[in-house]
Amino acid sequence: MQYTFSERHIIALNFVLVAALAYFAAGTVNEIVGLGLSPAPIVATGSVPHAAVPAISHPRSYYEPIVQRDIFNLVPAPVQKAPAVVEDLHLKLLGISRMTGGRSFIIVQDMNGEQALYRIGDMIPNAGRLTEVDEDRAVIEHAGRRVALELPRDNLAAATPPRSLPWRRKVLPGRPRPDASNFNPHIVNMGGNRYAIPRTTVDQSLSNLSSLFTQIRAIPNVQDGHTNGFALSEIVPGSVFDDMGLRDGDVLTSINGQPVNDPARAIQLLNGLRNQTSIEVQVLRNGSPMTLSYQIH
């Protein structure tokens, strides 16, 4: 028996086969996509969860040993300074000022009798760097050693009030207050704020600043935030300063027209008076300017 298919039957059979193939292909793709999107199964490990450990609270003192040991190096170890030794640096310490809010300084005298002022950090010629200023001594870094320069104990103590200058030093307990009874400056008041001073008085006073500084007190006089001079007080009766016509409450502003607004500058001006034949001192007295003139003979 022979079957004869027409062209129409062949076309219909092809459509059926294509539809079947498309159906099976779509099912296969759907299964693959489903497997890719499904989460992975969770496999039980069989481990037993640990019970929570309660926090233990300790007092602050419990941790104090750790703080003291400073295991984290929070506090730098203190630097142990070598003890200062006493050595002859050919310098004489005349005065000390431990200024509050500023750099402390000292006044020293060298072998030639020249006085100079040095602040902490300054280099002292032929001696070294000034590193410390204490109540009764200064420490100088000299040739790798710490050398102590001490005030004469048989003279005056150097405990200076804050902000005061070194030319006012306290007397050692038990010693009489210094006065000028053993020294007659022979200063003559010529009237009109003019005075005559013997050359010997000037030389003797400038050669013994250690004694001169006990006869007066001077502190910086600050006006509008700037130092315009030094306020004078506690002038010893009969002293050189008293005979020169200076009074408690005067503000020393200049010497021979040179402003006196810095301790170092004041010392330089004092040393410069040795060779002067005349001196003019400008002060403020009760707020008014005044000039005191001195002839040196």
CATH class of the domain at 177-297: Mainly Beta
Report the C-alpha radius of gyration, rounded.
47 Å
N-to-C SSE series?
A: HHEEEEEEEEEEHHEEHEEHEE
Helix-strand category: alpha+beta
CATH superfamily of the domain at 177-297: PDZ domain
CATH topology of the domain at 177-297: Pdz3 Domain
Count of individual helical segments: 6
Give the termini distance in whole angstroms.
168 Å
Largest sheet properties = 8 strands, mixed
Classify the beta-strand content into a percent band. 25-35%
Poorly predicted residue ranges: 155-183
CATH architecture identity of the domain at 177-297: Roll
Helical content (DSSP H or I, runs of 4+)? 10-25%
- Average pLDDT metric: 75
Give the overall shape: elongated
Oligomer: single chain
The count of strands amounts to 16
List keywords for this structure.
single chain; 297 residues; alpha+beta; SH3 type barrels; Pdz3 Domain; eight-stranded mixed sheet; five-stranded mixed sheet; 6 helices
Question: Gist?
Answer:
The protein is 21% helix and 29% strand.
Walk me through what this model shows.
The chain has 297 residues and is α+β, with helices and mostly antiparallel strands. Among the domains are: 80-160, SH3 type barrels (Roll); 177-297, PDZ domain (Pdz3 Domain). It has helices at 7-37, 64-69, 199-207, 209-212, 240-243, 263-271; strands at residues 85-86, 92-97, 105-109, 115-119, 123-124, 128-133, 137-142, 145-150, 188-191, 194-197, 217-223, 226-233, 251-255, 258-259, 278-285, 288-296. The strands form 3 sheets. Strands 9, 10, 11, 12, 13, 14, 15 and 16 form an 8-stranded mixed beta sheet that branches. Strand 13 and strand 14 (258-259) form a beta hairpin. The longest helix has 31 residues, at 7-37. The chain is elongated, with a radius of gyration of 47 Å. Residues 155-183 have low confidence and may be disordered.
